Amino acid sequence: MAYGHAERTLATIRLLEAETRELLSRQEHLDPEQAQWLREAAESASRRLCPGGAADPRTKPHQAGVR
After folding, report:
1. What is the secondary structure of 10-66 as a DSSP string?
2. For the whole prediction, is pTM greater than 0.90?
């Protein structure tokens, strides 16, 4: 399938993102850029895990769950 390579690449990126989130969450002090990335990554992960659940406040109600 043509999308197999892209799916494997995306899976690798998401794994690295999860590992980075875990490492940053263990730090006592984060600089503002790290803290912002950690918040955005956590929000992104929760949207992927709960599509159509809690809507992104930046999304219009009729767009919730639409990709």
Report:
1. HHHHHHHHHHHHHHHHH-S---HHHHHHHHHHHHHHHHHHSTTSSPPTTS-GGGTT-
2. no
